[in-house]
């Protein structure tokens, strides 16, 4: 699930994704999955919560860069 939050500073918007990881995954497997998301998808870690049941709920984010239209006067 992706969602958008209001910009923290002018001109910057963030896209967020919720990721739920099983309690049966090792810590190393979780680290490897997050590294893959960062390297290949441009995501960065925003928040990681480990519930009482051992399920990891991860929120990752990436910047949305809007390109401004340019007008060429001729």
Describe the structure.
The protein has 74 residues and is an alpha+beta fold. It has a single domain, classed as 2-Layer Sandwich (Defensin A-like). Helices cover 20% and strands 39% of the residues. It has 1 helix and 4 strands; from the N terminus they run E-E-H-E-E. The chain has one helix at residues 27-41; strands at 2-5, 13-21, 44-50, 56-64. A 4-stranded antiparallel β-sheet has the order 1-2-4-3, covered by helices on one side. Strand 1 (2-5) and strand 2 form a beta hairpin. The longest helix has 15 residues, at 27-41. The radius of gyration is 17 Å and the shape is elongated. The protein starts with a strand and ends in a 10-residue tail after the last strand. The relative contact order is 0.25. The mean pLDDT is 88. InterPro entries: DUF5703.
CATH architecture: 2-Layer Sandwich
Helix content: 10-25%
Strand content: 35-45%
Strand order of the largest sheet: 1-2-4-3
* Biggest sheet descriptor: 4 strands, antiparallel
Distance between the termini: 44 Å
CATH class type: Alpha Beta
The count of β-strands is 4
Keywords:
74 residues; alpha+beta; Defensin A-like; 4-stranded antiparallel sheet; 1 helix
Structure summary:
The protein is α+β, with helices and mostly antiparallel strands. 20% of the residues lie in helices and 39% in strands.
Chain-wise SSE layout:
Elements: E1 2-5, E2 13-21, H1 27-41, E3 44-50, E4 56-64
Antiparallel strand pairs: 1-2, 2-4, 3-4
């Amino acid at each position: 699930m992706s969602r958008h939050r209001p910009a923290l500073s002018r001109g910057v918007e963030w896209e967020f994704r919720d990721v739920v990881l099983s309690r049966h995954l090792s810590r190393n497997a979780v680290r490897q999955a997050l590294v893959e998301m960062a390297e290949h998808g441009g995501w960065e870690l925003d928040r990681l919560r480990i519930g009482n049941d051992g399920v990891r709920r991860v929120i990752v984010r990436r910047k949305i860069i809007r390109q401004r239209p340019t007008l060429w006067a001729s």
